[in-house]
Amino acid sequence: MFSIKILHSVSKILLSFTLLCTCIAIADDAAFMSKLAKALSPTPSGWSGTSFCEWKGVRCTTNGSTNLVILDLGNTNLIGTLPDVFDSLVSLRELRLSYNNLTGGLPKTFAVSGIQNLWLNNQKDGFGFSGTIEVLASMTRLSRVWLFKNLFTGPIPDLSNCTALFDLQLSDNQLTGVVPPSLMSLSSLLKVSLDNNVLQGPVPSFGKGVKVTLDGVNSFCRKDSGPCDSRVTTLLDIAKDFGYPLQLARSWSGNDPCGDWSFVVCATGKIVTMNLAKQNLTGTISPAFANLTDLKNLYLNDNHLGGSIPGDLVNLAQLRILDVSNNNLSGDVPKFPTKVKFNNAGNLLLGHSRGGGGSDTTPSSGSSDAPTESPNTASGGFSLSSAWIAGIVVIGVFFVSMVVVVFCTCHTINWHWTLEKVKNLENEKKVVLIEGGDLDRGDLDDGTKIAVKRMEYGSCIRGTTGRVTRRVDVYAFGVVLMELISGRKALDSSLPEEMPHLVSWFCRIVDNMKNISLVTDESLNLDDENMESICKVAELAAHCTSPEPHKRPDIWHAVNVLVPLVEQWNPACIHEQHEEKYCDVIYEGHYDMSFSEILSGR
Q1: What are phi and psi of 321, to 5 degrees?
Q2: If you count Cβ atoms within 10 Å of the first and of the last residue's Cβ in the chain, which end, N or C, has fewer?
Q3: Which intervals of the chain are annotated as region Disordered (predicted)?
Q4: What integer pLDDT is reported at residue 506 of this predicted model?
């Protein structure tokens, strides 16, 4: 008897709980319909009153619980976005919003809804749903999905958990990336349309019995089924970690990345440069970059990349430039060889440990695509605490003050020494001989007459005499060589105080030839052969600009040093943004000729 009472009490509790849940569900559905009515414009015809189950296009359950089951508002000229409140619609099975003017992304709460049939297709011109379709992967009850003629981007997600899906219509969007193998092996699938997108990789191959529509535009690597070129596969792996950006998919079509793909530069069929700077990229840096074994220059600066710098990049034997500045990178910094110009500035979360041997550079105020060396030529990238920075500033101010004092003192001493020399001339005629240029007459305080000549650049400052000798202008020639190697001007007042004079900066760094890569223009290919030539030219430039004039070579010595290097010259055209395109049309068949032979027409 006691047990019967317990069972009776339990049944009452369960009934009360069921009624409570039903009331909550009805209230949630009513709240959703109220929010949806406010989000859409114009409010659908017939949507008035408190009983939403009687509204046009709305169907509820027939058991009296008034739960929303079907919402059909197709072709009603609706404008607006969908509110993200579908988690409360436990009974919704069909959502039909085709042929409207709707915009925005798919609500994230689709993931926990019970929707089985989803019709959002054919939004009118100038409108359309956008963003990714990633949420479909979590809608495990889906059986039919019509999303064609919208503005969806990004890859097709893994739909392997949608085991009831039999009809998937995704044509006429901007979907990118490789068609996932899980979709091709989905046993429930009967119909699929993927035409008129920007899908990449190999042409998908579905099982027998699946009606597939692939006509129209896509960016598959081949027109028939079969694997892509290994270089294409690597680049698609790289794009995957960026989320398969649309700008890459539109250009990266076909099976030859050296066939005019944007952001990719090749030499003799090998990828040597990738310039992805300032492309608004998100995601992470792919370890697949390490598969591009001939890569020399990699520019990823000024994007929105997160994650860490893959350690595998240190294995790129040909790498000379790596610019990842101005992103959101974090984690440890790999140790790159000294030959690599490594710029990681502008990543506040990047690890505080030293980045190894590569030179850490700071981008200039100009384009980050062509980084300029920082006065700090330390061998690795590192971050400084505010205390260190404050200390450096104080020391810097003190140093500059001392330089000013010493400079003024030295100039005062030299001026008095010069006047004393003028007053006590040792030659018989007491005449000051000044060769070349205009003279100005002057009077000293004691009435002494003097002749004054302004000694220009290359004269008193550099110690040249103005006489026509075999060493004439050899200093200026050395400066020109430095300009060619570094890509800098002889005097650049926009640079920090310790860097404006090219000669002193250049000679200080190349005092040890192991540092030559720190002063070399990034547009030069720093392979072993070119590096040997650049070292010879740099040594000659330093010799020509020796502070002591008698130690400078004559011009014939300079010519003898350079002639063997000229014979190794090969023609190339350098385009903007470091894209090196070989001039096959202009120099076809003449790559084995020297520069002098090309000029003479032989």
Answers
A1: -130, 130
A2: N
A3: 353-376
A4: 82
In tens, the pLDDT along 113-162 reads 999 999 999 999 889 999 999 999 999 999 999 999 999 999 999 999 99
CATH T-level topology, domain 17-229: 3.80.10
Given pLDDT bands bounded at 50, 70 and 90, which one contains residue 444?
Answer: low
Residue type at 566? V
Query: How do residues 344-364 score in pLDDT, each as one tens digit?
Result: 999 999 984 443 444 444 443
As beta bridge partners, residue 450 has 442
Phi and psi (nearest 5°) for 32? -60, -45
For CA atoms 459, 462, 463, 468, give the dihedral sign: negative
Give, for 450, the enclosing helix (H) or strand (E): strand 449-452
String of b and e for 262-280 (b: at least 16 CB within 10 Å)? ebbbbbeeebbbbbbbbbe
Residue with tokens 């223009």: 521
* Mean pLDDT within 268-294: 97
CATH of 455-568, one of 3.30.70.260, 2.40.160.20, 1.10.510.10, 3.30.420.40: 1.10.510.10
Chain centre to alpha carbon of residue 22: 53
Q: Which residue has the higher pLDDT, 61 or 295?
A: 295
| Residue ranges of domains in the chain | 17-229, 263-383, 385-451, 455-568
Do 455-568 and 263-383 have the same topology in CATH? no
Q: Tell me, what's the pLDDT at 536?
A: 84
Q: What is the value of pTM for the model shown?
A: 0.55
